[in-house]
Design goal:
Family: Belongs to the granulin family.
Subcellular location: Secreted
Number of helices: 2
Distance between the termini: 100 Å
Radius of gyration: 31 Å
Structural class: alpha+beta
Protein name: Granulins-like protein
Shape: elongated
Number of strands: 15
Strand content: 15-25%
Organism: Lates japonicus
Strand order of the largest sheet: 1-2-3
Keywords: Disulfide bond, Secreted
Number of domains: 3
Largest sheet: 3 strands, antiparallel
Helix content: 25-40%
């Protein structure tokens, strides 16, 4: 009978040791998962904040409109039946402050109907820098072309159309075809972009 008691005690000790070992491994695994989950949450929070910044910078900054990311439409405030499609914008790199031209308000009020060539002299006063290598002449805007190259829009503060070949004057938005520009009370043809000049 003592052999059975010894056997029971031996089995009990082995089971207890095995259970302790299994519980220790489970606790370690849970701890590892908690650390990994915490790191993933921090990383997701960082990605989410970067994504928020990117999405906010790509929303049209049209005054008087509310834009919906889900429907990709912008709705005129107080006039919900007036809707325009959202246009994705790519911002030009910000030029250094020493290169920024000072332009009088009177120059912005002059209508600009003809295309202008990009300047040949990169260091000429009043050039618009698209990035460190490309520039457009004074009174124009930089737009990303359909192939990713820089183009010059003939309008100051122009809105670049989605096709990468046309643009609209300030205060107008490109229609879905990019061939015309819609304003509050009128529609006009869009302007053609010209290739930017390189230093």
């Amino acid at each position: 009978m003592s052999r059975i008691a010894d056997l029971k005690e031996f089995v009990s000790e082995r089971l207890h040791a095995a259970a302790s070992e299994i519980l220790g491994a489970i606790e370690k695994t849970i701890g590892d998962y908690e650390v990994q989950a915490s790191r993933l949450k921090e990383e997701n929070d960082r990605h989410r904040s970067v994504l928020d910044i990117i999405l906010k910078s790509k929303l049209p900054q049209t005054e008087g409109y509310r834009c919906n990311l889900v429907t990709q439409m912008c709705e005129k405030e107080n006039l919900p039946w007036v809707k325009i499609p959202m246009v994705r914008k790519e911002a030009a790199e910000e030029p250094s402050p020493a290169v920024l031209p000072l332009v009088s308000l009177q120059e912005f009020k002059k209508p600009m109907t003809a295309l202008t060539d990009a300047s040949h002299d990169a260091y000429e006063t009043g050039v618009i820098r698209c990035d460190s290598r490309f520039f457009c002449s004074k009174g124009t805007s930089c737009c990303k072309g359909s192939a990713g190259q820089w183009n010059c829009c003939p309008y100051p503060l122009g809105q670049c159309c989605a096709d990468g070949q046309h643009c609209c004057e300030y205060g107008y938005t490109c229609d879905p075809s990019s061939m015309s520009c819609r304003g509050p009370y009128s529609q006009v043809p869009s302007g053609a972009q010209e290739p930017a000049k390189m230093d």
